[in-house]
Amino acid sequence: MTAAPHPALELREITAGYQRRAPVLRQVSLSVHEGEAVGLLGPSGCGKSTLAKVAALLHRPYAGTVRIGGEAARGWRHRAPRAQRTAVGVVFQQPRLAADPRLTLAALIAEPLRATVRAAEAAGRAAELAEAVGLGGDLLGRRPHEVSDGQLQRACLARALALRPRVLVCDEMTAMLDASTTAALVAVVEDYRRRSGAALLAVGHDRTLLERWCDRTVELDQQSGTRRCTAALRSAPRAPADTTAG
């Protein structure tokens, strides 16, 4: 009998937060398999973004284990091994906080590539990604303050896809965008997943969007009077992919 494949992303009994005596999350477990899209829902303050940062190896939990492709995380942020860091791509809610204001959009997209591939390859890959997310012309020569939130988020998504991650974490990626830009970015993510088989963890509060976009949703509930959140699987059948909702 062939052994079942490891999840692309597995979070086991994660306790995390910013004050050890009052963690935001306690013993939360979640897994996302290769090619699967999981939506993470919950009210503000329940720890969705904290869990997303843990999943992306950007925030060290107090307890629990993160596994990428079956291998336990061996470090966090810049101390994580390169193979694990580059296996996860992440897109944040606020692109202006996630982008270096000194960089042009072209340089922003190429940022992860400069340290891993030759300059000519980086330029070619960055141009390919820019076209995929709908950026072109003089936009690539502009800096963040010279473009809209939607244009900047397109560049941030392109940057997240630059190293062909096996797991993509989208933390409220479309929360600040209009319906047409939301639909365009979701379509880019879905095209990438279809071609690569990557797993997706999509974090948000828009139930309609996530239930249409994802194969299943997981809900973090904030218990009354505490900061403890528990994950409860909700089998939500995937609706037709009308991503203009929300």
UniProtKB/TrEMBL annotation:
InterPro entries: AAA+_ATPase, ABC_transp_ATP-bind, ABC_transporter-like_ATP-bd, P-loop_NTPase. SMART domains: AAA (SM00382). This is ATP-binding cassette domain-containing protein. Keywords: ATP-binding, Nucleotide-binding, Transport. It comes from the Bacteria. GO terms for molecular function: ATP binding. Belongs to the ABC transporter superfamily. Pfam families: ABC_tran. Residues 9-243 form the ABC transporter domain. SUPFAM superfamilies: P-loop containing nucleoside triphosphate hydrolases (SSF52540). It comes from Streptomyces oryzae.
